[in-house]
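TL;DR need structure tokens for one chain.
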Amino acid sequence: MNRLLFRSLREYKKQSILTPVFVALEVLMEVLIPFQMAKIIDIGIQGQNLTYVLEVGLILVVMAMLALFFGAMAGKYGAEAGAGYAKNLRHDIFYKIQEFSFHNIDHFSASSLVTRMTTDITNVQMAYMMSIRLLSRAPIMIVLSLIMTLSINVDIALMLLVAIPVLGIPLLYIAKKAHHYFVQVFDEYDVLNNDVQENVNAARVVKAYVREDYENQKFHKISQTVFRLFTKAEKIVALNNPIMMFVMYTVILVMVLIGGEAIVFGTMEAGQMTSVLVYAMQILMSLMMVSFVFVMIMIAQASTDRIAEVLREVPEMQNKPNAKKHVDNGDIDFEHVDFSYAGTEGKRALKDIDLHIKSGQMIGIFGGTGSAKTTLVQLIPRLYDVTGGSIKVGGTDVRDYDLEALRNQVAVVLQKNVLFTGTIYENIRWGDENASDEEVQRVCRLAQADDFIRDFPDGYNTMIVEGGNNVSGGQKQRLCIARALLKKPKILILDDSTSAVDTKTDALIRKAFREEIPDTTKIIISQRISSIEDADQIIILDEGEVNGVGTSEELLRTNRIYREVYESQVKGGNEDAEE
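>> reply
TL;DR here they are.
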């Protein structure tokens, strides 16, 4: 097991220690029972001493009851330790993910993180629980059984001592050989889960394009790969049992030969032979347990490495000591900003961006697909860090702010709108969990969402299903805008967030922005000229560079890109209307 993962034991260290303690006491009782049984046979039964048989029999009953109690306690504490360990691992991974920047999240797919928090942690949980119970039990049982056998017959004890490595070495080799395939299996699980998740999320598109057969074939191919790898691993692991059985029966036959000869020559009693056979079975069964646990550990090792990869991931963005916790205003300054998703050596998505935005202004951002509009605005709440230059909000470099404080004052409605399972009230209150019903309704009116919400039978208590699939695209966009407004941010960013809204509603939303939140800096990314035409400034981006800045009138005179799009949308639209 990985040492990093053991930090997640925390409050379950006590149970993890008590489990092997009770296992040791249980094993002690189980080792003493055959010894007492030998006395019953050799002294009580052969000596026809009923009183002795009853006395030792009573001791055996007490030992059996103690073994039952110790075993039950070991099971109880082992289950608590295993389940608690898994709970803490899930907690640690989930909280770690919350610290990740977008750049960190890009290292892992969503399906991979889900697999690590479910299948991988379950594997680790099972391996850990078996380790503290079975793996701690086996060496204690082997040592005590060998000691007891040695006290009865040295030759048999030495023979058992030789049998341990004869059995152990091939079992360890098998476990090691299978590990490689288990690592591949869990990587393929990520691919499988990603395929299923993608298929479910895109179910409407799949059906619209009648691509069920293609999706079935793709799923079948990945599923077959998982099957093939698991089969290879299990074929290797399957050798465990025949090797174990062969060694076990060989040992028993040799023991019978040695023990039978000793009984014939009077150097060993029949009861002692019985107890030695029991000890031999205990040793061999313990070795089988060890081999089984090692297989589980080999499976869990692959999962352990994947979990540790997430826990070792260093969040790209850390708060500085004494980070600033108050944003003064909505001023935004881009000072010769460069940015690359691949770091300083990668291709730059933004090149020498130098912009200055005053608090309260409405800014339009316009540009073709791939011109880095979204990249530009994602740098403001520090979803990514700049590669070169600096960005200041309220006169302070965004890297000097406390991340939570900065993001509380920068509300972003991203291109991909996400609603969560819950009522409309609950979804809007992501902006402010303590907001009153009246405050929620007010921002919904600003976002032009109040009318359609009241048309629902349950109004604001209408349940939103997963992903918001029971509302239209335009309704979803307006709900997300309302959620952002509830934060009362100093900066509001709409990243093409009114694309599914009609032009009249779009105009009403912008009118509400001007009248109701005049001091908030408003940045609107849009491919629709009408959505940004009345902005205080319009920024034209082209291939990651600023191609022009100005009002709509100024850009019509000075900027070719803006003028061409304006004429195709506005003038072309008027001509169509006349026709």
